[in-house]
Amino acid sequence: MSDFLPTGIQLTYLVAASLFILGLKKLGSPATARNGNIVAAVGMLLAIAATMLDQHVLNYQMILLGLAIGSGIGAIVAYKVQMTEMPQMVGLLNGLGGAASALVAVAEFWRLLDSSQAIPLDVNISMLLDVLIGGVTFTGSFLAFAKLQGLISGSPITFPFQQPFNLLLLGAYIVGSAYLIITPDSLPIFLGVVGVSLVLGVMFVIPIGGGDMPVVISLLNSLSGVAAAAAGFVVMNNMLIIAGALVGASGLILTEIMCKAMNRSLFSVLFSAFGTGSSSGGGAASGGATDQSVRSIDPEEGAMMLGYARSVVIVPGYGMAVAQAQHSVRELSDQLEKMGVDVKYAIHPVAGRMPGHMNVLLAEANVPYTQLYDMDDINPQFDQADVALVIGANDVVNPAARSDTNSPIYGMPILEVDRAKQTIVIKRGMSTGFAGVDNELFYKDKTTMLFGSAKDMVAKLVSEVKQL
Questions:
Q1: pLDDT at 97 exceeding the cut of 80
Q2: CA triplet 62, 65, 70: central angle to 5 degrees?
Q3: Does the N terminus or the C terminus of the chain have fewer Cβ atoms within 10 A?
Q4: What does the DSSP assignment read for 121-144?
Q5: CB 398 within 8 A of CB 437
Q6: Residue from 130, 212, 395, 438 carrying the catalytic annotation
Q7: Average pLDDT of 349-371?
């Protein structure tokens, strides 16, 4: 039995790792994402059980108590948090993951210090990396949460000599780490590098504008995985290393996808202080950056354009999320389909505040997955669309990205709604998007503006369409 247990634990880890990979694969499609989440959760349960046996955990009462408290908090939060606040929730979870990994390193350092054991070089380096990555992820994620929640300004926060100051902090961390490698039993220096890592996380996120939050959230998610892998090296746990590596790699791939969707490098996102961070603005009368005029319509006219169309493409954006209009949008879609209209949804990779934000909202409203089209698939179909209905989207439909070489968003792939025969834009006013640039789409001859809250305007469209 004693010989079987270690082998059984490693086999369980292998099964758990396989379930993690299968779960990640299923998360790649909205249709299988729910099952993928369950598969990965089963893998985590197996990993936890095997780790408890491997580490000879005897105080199961405390383990169960922690499990009950954590599950209770998680259930309450999942029930209470609005879908529009999911980016903030993801930010918090990233931060807690980073904090947990950093605490593993702190606890291990403390344990080795109290036991007067010599700290092996590989464990020492792993602890220092864990503290750095975990600390940056913790404070960086919580600052991203504060920006998204509106607790602090979403605009880039910069000050003179900011980058030299960041380099000074990084240098202090490197010097402190080198000292700890030579003299590994210095508690004050260790606590000092922990503090520096926390400050680095703050300095990492404050110069990033709200428009870049999808990239930041996916990058912080990747860092939380790397921190977990580093924690695995600290405690010599293969399962933690594998799980952390999977999260780190998938988050990094997603970050790269987000950067390509914005036609920007990761370096530019992190250090260029791009975007205003706020899309709120004036009402219908407020002007944009030009003196051009726009053509506005009322819900009755909009309903006639939609109801008598053969093909409609709905383009959701952050404005739909803010107004919580996804259920009204689904109702409008259902009503149009009853009239024989072909309805599709066009999803831009960086629409909203986190990767997949629009997919999550539309899934909550039970929009069929078969109606969701990504940017590459839907763009060739806009020429055949009678009406493109833009609901709260701005930068991701701005034709300037395609035509204006002087625009800061030039080269960014967009949803080419201006190629549709007619375009209806639902928006509160003429304010700019997160990029802070005026939208050429609003002034096109084929574009009409329906000013007002997305939820109210869509509800009125539904009412008017029913009367056709």
A1: yes
A2: 125
A3: N
A4: HHHHHHHHHHHHHHHHHHHHHHHH
A5: yes
A6: 395
A7: 84
The pLDDT confidence band at residue 58, using thresholds 50, 70 and 90, is: low
Give the global pTM: 0.78
Nearest to 180 by CA among 257, 249, 126, 251: 126
Q: Are 309 and 386 within 8 A, CB to CB?
A: yes
- Residues facing residue 335 across a β-bridge: none
Identify any residues that bridge with 447 across adjacent strands, giving them in sequence order. Answer: 423
Question: Do 282 and 431 contact (CB within 8 A), yes or no?
Answer: yes
Q: What are phi and psi of 138, to 5 degrees?
A: -60, -60
Which residues lie below 8 Å from residue 73, measured CB to CB, with a gap of 6+? none
Please give the Cα distance from 126 to 352 (Å, whole number).
36
Give yes or no: 334 in active site: no
- For 24, the token pair is 């990640």
Alpha helices in 206-317 (DSSP H): 213-235, 238-261, 266-271, 299-307
Q: Which of 70, 264, 227 is nearest to 141 (CA)?
A: 227
